[in-house]
Amino acid sequence: MDIRMICMDLDGTALRPDRVSFSPLLESVLAQAHTRGIAVTVVTGRQYGLLPPAVTNHPVWENLAVLCNGGQVRRLGTGELLSSLDMEQQALQQLIALAERFSLPLEFSLDSRLYLTRRSLELQQEDPGLVFHRDTILANHGQTVDSLEPLCGRTVEKVNLLCIPEEKRNAVLRELETIAVSAVWSSRNCMEITHPAAHKGRGLEEACRLLDIPVECTMALGDSGNDIAMLRRAGLGVAMGNAPDFVKDAADVVTDRYDADGAAKAILQYALKA
After folding, report:
1. Does this model's pTM top 0.85?
2. Taking the CB of residue 145, how many other CB atoms lie within 10 A of it?
3. d(Cα 110, Cα 48) in Å, to the nearest integer?
């Protein structure tokens, strides 16, 4: 297979456990891919202003970034917005009502900040899986507000629905099916919600269109539920060794864990054929 573009998730895939940097091997492999004329596209649930130093320090392969699970496509270096699918006001209001009924934390993402009520922040405190999110993301990019309702008429890029306990999962999913949104699992008990047409598969297609690269000449790497659409759409879908089984089942091949240089190893094997 002639790989002409690498579409790379960040958290749990390309980033090291510190969630801000790439391993030396991955940095070297991405530079080699660039030298061979292979485009590198970041495909993430993150917003532009929340991207880590690994991709904002102007690496040699800098190109496009698919953000908010396919809701936006921007130029990585300048932030220029090339494509966007923002959430609709009615859907946002319905999500607020859902979160209130089930007592779940809810966050609105706009202008690269996360807006949440103080009650939502309180509900996150006892979840050990949200330590990085609370202590790093919200500490630097969070904004508490009295109510999310006034934000429903603004340009909301993405919504986070967090801390969904097992006993509420099925009921929450049934309600989400009645709302015009795209909802995917980003971790064990958290969902990322976007415009109904926004997903990473759509973002991959948009990047292909902008760079004039056939979809079948792409390689995608991911580890979570929000990566499944991209893994299925790419010419070659690669799941990380740390991915849950339902994500591995959606991929063509499985590589090593993210903390064992699985992304670099897959790129070497399938794109660089080293």
Report:
1. yes
2. 14
3. 10
Please state, in angstroms and as integers, the Cα–Cα distance from residue 201 to each residue in 7, 82, 90, 259, following that order: 10, 16, 25, 25
95: closest CA among 172, 40, 18, 35? 172
Largest CA distance in the chain: 55
Distance CA 60, CA 237 (A): 24
Burial of 88 per CB tally in 10 Å (0-12, 13-18, 19+): middle
* Cα–Cα distance measured from residue 221 to residue 94, given in angstroms and rounded to the nearest whole number: 33
Check residue 188 and give its pLDDT: 85
Q: Kindly indicate the confidence band of residue 126, based on its pLDDT and cuts at 50, 70 and 90.
A: confident
φ, ψ for residue 180, nearest 5 deg: -80, 80
For the chain, the domains span: 5-85+198-271, 89-194
* CA dist., res. 77 & res. 56, Å (int): 7
Distance CA 192, CA 160 (A): 5
Q: What is d(CA 17, CA 23) in angstroms, rounded to the nearest whole number?
A: 10
Tell me phi and psi for residue 263, to 5 degrees. -65, -45
Q: Which residue has the tokens 């909301």?
A: 156
* Residue 204: strand, helix, or coil: helix
Question: Helices 89-102 and 166-176: crossing angle, nearest 10°?
Answer: 160
pLDDT, tens only, 24-76: 999 999 999 999 999 999 999 999 999 999 999 999 999 999 999 999 999 99
Cα→Cα distances 190→175, 185, 186, Å: 15, 6, 6
Asked if the 5-85+198-271 domain carries CATH number 3.40.50.720, the reply is no
What is the CATH topology of the domain spanning 89-194? 3.30.1240
Q: How far apart are CA 38 and CA 2, in angstroms?
A: 10
Residue 225, pLDDT > 80, answer yes
